[in-house]
Design a protein that fits this description.
With about 120 residues, the chain is an alpha/beta fold. It has 4 helices and 4 strands; from the N terminus they run βαβααββα. A 4-stranded parallel sheet has the order 3-2-1-4. Strand 1, helix 1 and strand 2 (about 25-30) form a beta-alpha-beta unit.
Length: about 120
């Protein structure tokens, strides 16, 4: 089985690593290019006991992947999990990155429409 997880914070990264550990092919997606580059180079942005080993092992085994382009994996995955908070307007003055996260929510909506057009799901 192949899945995508949108968001590589505590929830997304830990979930992705755990799914990969049980044999699921996981693509973790984030809008933060630096974070994705760091993950691809083995730099874990959060601390969770044992997470660095879990990520390293599953990347090496080819079950855990990282990208900033959600649409690049949509044809291959069966499930897309959202591990991002959605916030628009009122909280962007506190956390400016939430506007970007809100924008990802719209991309997920478009991704759902994209998935509906995928021929393998209409056979």
């Amino acid at each position: 089985m192949k899945i995508a997880i949108v968001g590589t914070g505590y929830v997304g990264l830990v979930s992705g690593a755990c799914f990969a550990e049980v044999g699921i092919d996981v693509t973790c997606v984030d809008i933060d290019f630096r974070k994705i580059d760091n993950l691809k180079n083995g730099i874990i942005p959060i601390y969770e006991p044992g997470l660095d080993d879990l990520v390293s092992r599953n990347v090496k085994e080819g079950r855990l992947h990282f990208t900033t382009d959600l649409t690049s994996c949509l044809d291959d995955v069966e499930v897309v999990f959202s591990a991002v908070a959605l916030c628009k307007g009122s909280c962007t003055h506190i956390w400016p990155q939430h506007q970007q996260i809100y924008d990802i929510g719209h991309k997920k909506h478009r991704a759902g429409r994209y998935r509906g057009k995928n021929k393998k799901y209409h056979q």
